[in-house]
Amino acid sequence: MSVGPDLHWRYVRACQNVGQPENPFIAHVLQEADKDDKTRWTKGITLKIAGNNRLVPVQRVTDDDLQVLASVLCDTVFVTGLDLRCNVLTDAGAKDVATFLQENSTLRYLNLMLNDIGPSGAELIARALHRNETLVYLRMTGNKIGNKGGMSFASMLQINSTLEKLDLGDCDMGTQCLIAIATALTQNKSLKAINLNRPLLYSQEEETTVHVALMLKTNSSLVELHLCKHEMKNFGVERLCEALYENSSLRYLDLSCNKITRDGVKFLAELLKRNQTLEILDLNANRIEDDGAIYLSEALALNNRTLQALSVVSNNISGKGLVALSDAMKTNVELCYIYIWGNKFDEATCMAFSELIISGRLKPNCTDVEAYEVDGQVQLAELSHGLKKHYYWTPSCGEGTNRDANASLAITAVSEY
């Protein structure tokens, strides 16, 4: 096995051997890796070959490029992470990925989000994970793997006992495979986080939410669950809350971009009064309004001392509800992160949150607003802070792991490799 930083030289040789032109972006990344501090090689490095990198000229990775790169990396023990997001890999590239996963025994993190991998490519990757015993985190976000590809991953979850985080958001999965995944997770004991955002659901019966709730009653390993854009209504929230009374492991629940109203939040508020594990609750882009905010504030002020972060961005809340949430923070010292932008700010709201920030109760990097004064009146401006601001993109300056923009990384350990 390779023991030294000679990745670029090996890549050039491999391209020459098969008559494949070098990809200058891959060559650049490998050169930079070779120059890296040698003490990091013993801990493992992540090669970031993301097609949306704006700091250097990018020639996106093709299937042919990947075939050569995989041959270079197959026996390197120090490359433990590979970021190939936003490239042009197809099912043909997925075949090389699958072969690589079967042969490589050190890769722990693989990011394939926003490529062009379809159902057959997903099936190859999922089958490779039947035998792979090292990969901990896989991101397939945005690849249109459909129901067939989703079913392959559901089957994989019945066999694989190494994977801890699986990201299948925006993959055009349907009702059938969501139910299959939920069923598999009733037995799987290794997966700690799963993203099932934006499936294609054509029923209003919320069957998938019911099956997810049944899974949560028995699953004791899942820490992080994303159910964004599930067309979830108050009935579905009630089913989830019933299950979470029996669950003592889930710490991060993402219910953003659903159809939850004040009646649904009443169930969440009752849950928060008794739940002792939930640390992050994302209700961004629902419609909880003032009554929903007041239900939450009462639970947080009087009972709950576990929740650390709450997002109620764009929920049609006015001053009455927002002031109630700010009052809850005065008595609940555990709630450190709160995100409120996109609601209806009045003078009382601006004063309440300004006082929280000035007094030091709410740190400036723990919320998405900052106070400023115009003609003697306090106003609130938006900050680029949140639970997961850099989920689909990374900033051109700085790292996508910035804790101000991605507070969930600071709270829930499994959120990032």
Structural commentary:
By secondary structure, the chain is an alpha/beta fold. The protein has 14 helices and 13 strands. It has helices at 7-18, 24-35, 63-73, 91-103, 119-128, 146-157, 175-184, 207-218, 234-244, 262-274, 289-302, 319-331, 347-359, 407-411, and strands at 45-48, 79-83, 109-111, 137-139, 165-167, 193-195, 224-226, 252-254, 280-282, 309-311, 337-339, 369-374, 377-382. The chain has an eleven-stranded parallel sheet with strand order 1-2-3-4-5-6-7-8-9-10-11. Helix 6 links the parallel strand 4 and strand 5. Helix 1 (7-18) packs antiparallel against helix 2 (24-35) and helix 8 (207-218) packs parallel to helix 9.
Brief rundown of the structure:
By secondary structure, the chain is of the alpha/beta class. The chain is 39% helix and 12% strand.
Keyphrases for this structure?
single chain; 417 residues; alpha/beta; Leucine-rich repeat, LRR (right-handed beta-alpha superhelix); eleven-stranded parallel sheet; two-stranded antiparallel sheet; 14 helices; 39% helix; globular
Q: Provide the β-strand percentage band.
A: 5-15%
Shape: globular
Can you tell me the CATH class? Alpha Beta
According to CATH, the fold-level topology is Leucine-rich repeat, LRR (right-handed beta-alpha superhelix)
CATH H level, superfamily name: Ribonuclease Inhibitor
Arithmetic mean pLDDT: 93
Q: Please indicate the count of domains.
A: 1
Low-confidence blocks of residues: none
Q: From the alpha carbons, calculate the radius of gyration and give it in angstroms.
A: 23 Å
Strand order, largest beta sheet? 1-2-3-4-5-6-7-8-9-10-11
Helix content: 25-40%
Termini Cα gap: 24 Å
Please identify, by name, the CATH architecture: Alpha-Beta Horseshoe
Number of helices: 14
User: How many distinct beta strands?
Assistant: 13
Structural class: alpha/beta
The ordered string of helix (H) and strand (E) elements is: HHEHEHEHEHEHEHEHEHEHEHEHEEH
Quaternary class: single chain
Largest sheet: 11 strands, parallel
Pfam family, one: LRR_6
Protein name: LRC34 protein
InterPro entries: Leu-rich_rpt, LRR-containing_regulator, LRR_dom_sf
Keywords: Repeat
